[in-house]
Amino acid sequence: VSSRTPRKAIVAGAGIGGLTAAATLRKVGLEVEIYERATELKHAGGALSLMSNGVLALRAVGVEPDFGRHGDILSELSFRTTTGKVIKTLKFAGITAELGAPAYGIHRGDLQRILLDEIGDSKVELNAAATGFEADEDGVRLHLADGRTVHGDLLVGADGIESAVRRQLVGPETARDAGYLCWLATPMYSDPERIPKAYGAHYWGDGARFGIANIGGGRVYWWGTQNMPAAQVHAYRGGRDDVLRTFAGWAPEILDMVKATPEEEIIVVRAQDRPFLEHWGRGRVTLLGDAAHPILTALGQGAALAMEDAAVLASHLDGAPDVAAALRAYEDERGPRIRALIRKARTMSKLEQSEGRLQVAFRNTYFRLLPDRAVERYNRSMMDFSLAGRGARP
Ligand SMILES: Cc1cc2nc3c(=O)[nH]c(=O)nc-3n(C[C@H](O)[C@H](O)[C@H](O)COP(=O)(O)OP(=O)(O)OC[C@H]3O[C@@H](n4cnc5c(N)ncnc54)[C@H](O)[C@@H]3O)c2cc1C
Q1: Distance between CA atoms of 4 and 32, rounded to whole angstroms?
Q2: Which of 181, 210, 331, 366 has the greatest CB tally within 10 Å of its CB?
């Protein structure tokens, strides 16, 4: 039994989850050291939606970065046909006003800088890949690829979808392919007529989708998806011409923007998740963010869920006399919500990537007929977060 209040946390991975965990754990008095495999802290391209629940979670433990300094507030998102005809518009403004926290569209690099500002002088060591760990009643030792070992009172594996910490905890696994690939880019681009300030739109086609978000600062985030068998996705090497071929005949704002995007700024990503994991940790070791629960992007929730994890983890470790018990309480609290959202994202993703004339017609008609209030209620439930009576340090 671990019987003293933890003083030092070791975090593997300096992504959104690892940096956020460092910020929240510092807030409850822990010293934090982060070990990151990459040789530089460069964001992996693209931007993302940071939903209100992420903002609310951090606020609940007294971490309040100024996301608005770099991100543009998401006020609405329209779902459209391939040619741009509106199927349904989801208005965020009412939901976020009610929740008391905006949702943002933000560049990953800006988000990283904002989070780095929140971790003060915590050590972030680069070129430091975690390879495995040992843990006992007295502490945890994390082994690094260069042969060094670092020590702490607990270990948080925030090392992403291919987490080395997770591999040691649960053994070899294979990520689950969703059956499509994604292209993404965040070029400097301006089209004020068709892509005005704060424009957010998803265009739905037959086994393919395209998304546009004007994230401010002269940049537009776009992504496209295309259904593809898993084996083909793994071997895929296409570029901008493929994107243009896939979306030929779609709304002109899409094609003009893709044509204007430098080829080297287009990234290709496989759509993958993992089934819900029942046990995220053991003893003084736990997982957080994508290491614990990679989720399909359909709900735009991956980053916000990592932030929720970080807030809940810190609230359980705050003054905890028993590290292992605090980590299990964190995992137990997160389980039901994460399990439900992984499933919801899968269902939504399947519907969005519908293939075949009938399926596409059904999907579009179904969404068109859904009452706005039902859509808002569904989204509000995902975008709300509270620490159930705990938290909010001064
Ligand atoms: C195409 C796409 C679009 C998305 N859009 C959105 C969106 O709009 N909104 C949203 O909320 N989420 C979105 N997500 C999900 C979101 O990006 C992730 O959920 C989020 O980044 C998870 O953060 P993380 O820190 O857990 O993992 P990661 O961001 O993957 O960070 C893991 C870190 O660990 C490091 N690492 C890996 N292995 C090791 C090791 N052995 N030792 C040390 N360090 C290691 C990596 O280099 C990396 O820095 C999207 C994801 C994809 C793929």
Answers
A1: 17
A2: 210
